[in-house]
């Protein structure tokens, strides 16, 4: 016996990358520099690591699914301040739950909320974070892919009312992965109105929200308040310590928004059995209460975007999207060939954009781009840029 929906899941982008590079031989004398995976390499905050050690004895206890009131209060206070929700502050009892990283929560949220007997779609950007698609497929729904335009986000205004009516769940990603572009308050408000009118869940994946250059990006809950809502109806946001605080291995984030979603999700999670270790909760609570390390982290990324422009700006289109930590660059040849050759000649790994997208009507909007994660330590990153420059300059591309 096997769940037939498992057959619908597509190979993960990193599996495709491993296959592409399987028999490629990078230079032996150069260290490998992986810029393919979005795993932060800046050091995690010491005070979080100390708290984790200090509270290790708490692993002797079963954690509750709902999490400690201290953690929920810290996360709710952070989101309330960051997104200017003071007039209708998030209630840490009813509007928020801790999750073990947003990946599992993004997947589980669709399973918990959607009605497979009705059918319909999960709307998502294309290219996208692949968990959105897997969540739709495992919930027995159809992914509805919206291609990104030249601004790096889908044209949500072009979605027809009949498509909204057929939608049970819509993922937006702001700042986006892979493009780093953000959705402004006006479009977020329009999306909230559609969600309320057509009764679908609007879920904003905001795990890159704290990596920005100038202005903090608007969040969905902020837009909900600006739209006149008082209860975040149909709105859900996902936040994570992985990128904000360089803690991808801690597996710590939260989901917040509509209280009716949170209460159903809590019920689902009680059976799902994915409560967060008490030691992780104690450490996470401190991370949400501190902004100093987050500002320092932002500065490092901003410097790397500047450096990428200095080293590569005259030979590649390395526009800083203003948020996130990816460069989304048009390649001078097919993106998989570019990535493989780059790896063979320089030991630098980047991710072909076509692995992050789906071909619809003959067009994969990720094809012809690579995603470069600006995650390496500054010195190593500089070395990677120099190697990419030499590689691009040495090729007769036309
Ligand atoms: C767009 C996006 N959403 C969610 C996640 C999941 O992050 P985590 O599970 O570490 O919170 C990632 C991780 O790379 C991501 O890129």
List keywords for this structure.
single chain; 398 residues; alpha/beta; Aspartate Aminotransferase, domain 1; Aspartate Aminotransferase, domain 2; seven-stranded mixed sheet; three-stranded antiparallel sheet; 14% strand; binds pyridoxal-5'-phosphate
Percent of residues in helices comes to 25-40%
Termini Cα gap: 53 Å
Radius of gyration, in Å, reads 21 Å
Q: Strands across the major sheet, in which order?
A: 2-8-7-6-5-3-4
Beta-strand share of residues: 5-15%
> What general form does the structure show?
globular
Structural class: alpha/beta
Q: So how many helices? A: 14
Describe this structure in words.
The chain has 398 residues and is of the alpha/beta class. The chain folds into two domains: 4-44 and 293-393, Alpha-Beta Complex (Aspartate Aminotransferase, domain 1); 46-290, Type I PLP-dependent aspartate aminotransferase-like (Major domain) (Aspartate Aminotransferase, domain 2, 3-Layer(aba) Sandwich). It has helices at residues 13-21, 46-54, 69-82, 102-113, 131-138, 161-165, 185-198, 220-226, 241-244, 259-272, 278-289, 292-312, 335-346, 378-393, and strands at 33-34, 96-99, 121-126, 142-147, 167-173, 201-205, 235-240, 253-257, 326-330, 348-349, 351-352, 369-373. The strands form three sheets. A seven-stranded mixed beta sheet has the order 2-8-7-6-5-3-4, with helices on both faces. The chain has a three-stranded antiparallel beta sheet with strand order 9-12-11. The protein is globular, with a radius of gyration of 21 Å. Bound molecules: pyridoxal-5'-phosphate.
């Amino acid at each position: 016996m096997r769940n037939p929906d498992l057959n619908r899941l597509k190979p993960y982008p990193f599996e495709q990358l491993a296959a592409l590079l399987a028999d490629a031989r990078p230079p032996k004398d150069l260290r490998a520099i992986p810029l393919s995976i979005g795993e932060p390499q800046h050091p995690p905050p010491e005070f979080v690591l100390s708290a984790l050690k200090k509270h290790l004895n708490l692993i002797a206890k079963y954690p509750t699914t709902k999490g400690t009131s201290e953690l929920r209060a810290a996360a709710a206070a952070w989101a309330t301040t960051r997104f200017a929700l003071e007039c209708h502050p998030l209630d840490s009892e009813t509007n928020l739950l801790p999750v073990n990283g947003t990946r599992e929560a993004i997947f589980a949220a669709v399973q918990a909320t959607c009605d497979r007997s009705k059918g319909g779609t999960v709307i998502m950007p294309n290219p996208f974070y692949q968990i959105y698609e897997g969540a739709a497929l495992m919930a027995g729904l159809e992914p509805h892919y919206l291609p990104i335009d030249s601004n790096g986000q889908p044209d949500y205004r072009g979605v027809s009312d009949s498509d909204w009516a057929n939608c049970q769940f819509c993922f937006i990603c702001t700042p986006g992965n892979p493009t780093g572009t953000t959705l402004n308050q006006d479009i977020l408000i329009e999306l909230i109105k559609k969600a309320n009118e057509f009764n679908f869940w609007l879920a904003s994946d905001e795990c890159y929200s704290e990596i920005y250059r100038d202005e903090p990006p608007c969040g969905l809950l902020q837009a909900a308040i600006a739209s006149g809502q008082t209860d975040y109806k149909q709105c859900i946001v996902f936040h994570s310590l992985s990128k904000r605080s360089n803690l991808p291995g801690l597996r710590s984030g939260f989901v917040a928004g509509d209280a009716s979603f949170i209460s159903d999700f809590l019920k689902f999670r009680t059976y799902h059995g994915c409560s967060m270790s008490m030691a992780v909760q104690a450490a996470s609570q401190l991370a949400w209460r501190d902004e100093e390390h987050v500002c320092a982290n932002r500065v490092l990324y901003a410097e790397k975007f500047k450096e990428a422009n200095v080293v590569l700006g005259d030979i590649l289109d390395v526009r800083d999207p203003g948020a996130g930590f990816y460069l989304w660059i048009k390649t001078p040849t097919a993106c998989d060939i570019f990535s493989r050759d780059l790896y063979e000649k320089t030991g630098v790994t980047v991710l072909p954009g076509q692995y992050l997208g789906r071909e619809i009507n003959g067009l994969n909007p990720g094809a012809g781009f690579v995603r470069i994660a600006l995650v390496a330590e500054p010195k190593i990153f500089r070395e990677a840029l120099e190697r990419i420059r030499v590689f691009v300059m040495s090729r007769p591309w036309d």
